[in-house]
UniProtKB/TrEMBL annotation:
This is Tyrosinase copper-binding domain-containing protein. Pfam families: Tyrosinase (PF00264). The keyword Oxidoreductase does not apply. Residues 1-23 form the signal peptide. SUPFAM superfamilies: Di-copper centre-containing domain. Keywords: Copper, Metal-binding, Signal. The keyword Transport does not apply. It comes from Aphanomyces euteiches. Gene3D superfamilies: Di-copper center containing domain from catechol oxidase.
């Protein structure tokens, strides 16, 4: 009789497993899409996944990995793009492990070209990072001012004692999963004394930089080498988003805010466009994807195969001279020596599918099934046509006159072009192509012509879109940064007579299309 009962229980268990398997089909390809294309249910699932990561103690452990001083030598130097590609991949793996609802989740990217198109267009009512795209509002953007300082990460009283950051407000919205469960350190998590809020700047006042325009991002992506691409992204669009959002995002504690992962999904998407367009047939040692000249000094940091290489706790976990410096830092013992994927790391399971070696990251392996969908976004024209996009004419199904007439009717609620991206994006594509063609009448060198178009938009940003400003002292200190933003340097060069824009009539072209919304 007992045997019958055991067999019955086994039969029931098998039936349940079979039913669960039937009700839960395997995930398809891992396609990262723009946040704006997610359904309401998908957005809710993403927010709940971030909260689950915080509640289970995983989220703050990723923060300490990014924050750890020895990891920084490669994370913000020669391996900036590949280091963050692995970091993003591991974090996404972690989110997918949190439960049945999250198992097929992918981290979306942020359509910066769409965002800049909205701000440029005088017919669209928006003027900040929060109001010109749906990401930040959905993630709890607040304009409340209650300045204070907070310590995130690390072990108090040690060499890695965490980072003190200033913020306009520590955002806690009891209705928003993203902001209500944040824990700032392992010590706080173990003692159950978490902040339960995220230190942030006033995102409703945060500027949209000219580095997010199509002209600028095109110049950043279409580099002649991997070193140039790395410097372009690391010195232009990447730091401007961090600095303008401020709070935790303006520090090395930036992964504290889940918005970090959408930002870096965007940077990773730009790397994917570069690889497709500039290095489609490159091997792991090709200068297009991994030039030896990148080693040694880069961004004032020593970088390369001999810098803080992780130790292995197991013969089965082999490391080589090309192993990435991504050490697990536990935030309790102040010791970090093993790779995040090492068996001793509590994050090991999330990095088991990720390679330890630099040369594996110029493109995702086929087994990962990771790709990006740029359909109907501001990036679509760049990804589809590569560098040639700027010299073309946007292929609209409507005449240009009819399109412009329709654009004039656009309000803060975006109307969509019938077969493509939103109308403000179409407008920016058309504008950029026209200004480039005008510039080429006077400047024969293609690279210089593209740079002059970008410089024009810096001037417009400064005089008509609220001004261009240097990074704050706090941001430079946290990021160990001595540089100023691209547009800030361009404007200084123009003011000092070191540069000028030798293209007659360029200002008139900009004013006819975009006008001067906020003259300064």
């Amino acid at each position: 009789m007992l045997a019958v009962r055991i067999l019955s229980l086994v039969a029931i268990a098998l039936a349940v497993l079979k039913a669960e398997s039937a009700a839960s089909p395997p995930c398809g390809p891992r396609v990262r899409r723009p946040y704006s294309k997610l359904t309401a249910t998908e957005k809710e699932t993403l927010q709940l996944a971030f909260e689950a990561a915080m509640l289970q103690g995983h989220h703050h452990r990723f923060v300490t990995v990014h924050q750890y001083s020895l990891n920084e030598y490669e994370a913000h130097s020669c391996m900036f793009l590949y280091w963050h590609r692995r970091f993003l991949w591991g974090y996404e793996n972690m989110l997918r492990s949190l439960g049945e609802r999250f198992k097929c989740l992918t981290i979306p990217y942020w359509d910066y070209a769409g965002m800049s198109s909205n701000q440029l267009d005088p017919n669209v009512t928006c003027d900040s990072l929060a109001t010109c795209n749906p990401v930040l509002v959905d993630f709890g953007a607040s304009s409340i001012s209650n300045p204070s300082s907070y310590v995130i990460g690390g072990t108090p009283g040690t060499a890695n004692g965490g980072e003190t950051i200033s913020a306009d407000n520590c955002v806690h919205d009891p209705t928003n999963p993203v902001t209500r469960s944040f824990c700032e350190s392992e010590a706080a998590f173990q003692s159950k004394r978490c902040l339960r809020c995220i230190p942030r700047g006033n995102w409703h006042n945060a500027q949209i930089a000219a580095d997010t325009t199509l002209a600028s991002m095109s110049n950043q992506i279409f580099a002649s080498s991997f070193a140039e691409l790395t410097k372009n992204l690391m010195y232009k669009v990447h730091p401007k988003i961090h600095a303008n959002l401020d709070g935790a995002m303006g520090t090395m504690s930036s992964p504290s805010d889940p918005v970090f992962f959408l930002h870096h999904a965007t940077i990773d998407a730009l790397l994917s466009i570069y690889t497709k367009c500039q290095a489609p047939y490159a091997s792991g040692t090709d200068p297009k994807v991994f030039p030896p000249s990148d080693w040694n000094l880069f961004n004032n940091r020593v970088c390369g195969p001999y810098v803080f290489r992780p130790k292995s706790s197991s013969p089965r976990f082999s490391l080589s001279r090309n192993s990435m410096s991504m050490l697990y830092y536990n935030g309790t013992t102040d010791v970090a020596s093993v790779d995040v994927g090492d068996p001793e790391s509590p994050l090991a399971q999330y990095f088991s599918s990720t390679s330890k070696n630099y040369m594996a990251y110029y493109r995702y392996p086929q087994s990962s099934t990771i790709s990006y969908d740029f359909t109907d976004t501001g990036f679509d024209v760049i990804n589809s046509n590569c560098e040639a996009w700027i010299g073309g004419s946007y292929n609209s199904t409507e005449s240009s006159a009819a399109l412009m007439k329709d654009i004039k009717k656009t309000t803060s609620k975006q109307k969509k072009h019938r077969d493509g991206p939103p109308l403000p994006v179409v407008k920016q594509i058309d504008f950029t192509q026209n200004v480039y063609k005008h510039t080429k009448r006077y400047i024969k060198d293609d690279k210089k012509a593209r740079e002059y178009v970008e410089m024009m938009l810096c001037v417009h940003r400064n005089e008509c879109m609220g001004g261009v400003f240097d990074y704050s002292a706090e941001f430079k200190k946290s990021f160990k940064w001595s540089l100023s933003p691209y547009c800030y340097n361009v404007l200084d060069d123009i003011a000092q007579g070191r540069k000028h824009i030798p293209v007659p009539g360029w200002a008139k072209l900009i004013m006819e299309t975009y006008g001067c919304r906020n003259m300064s």
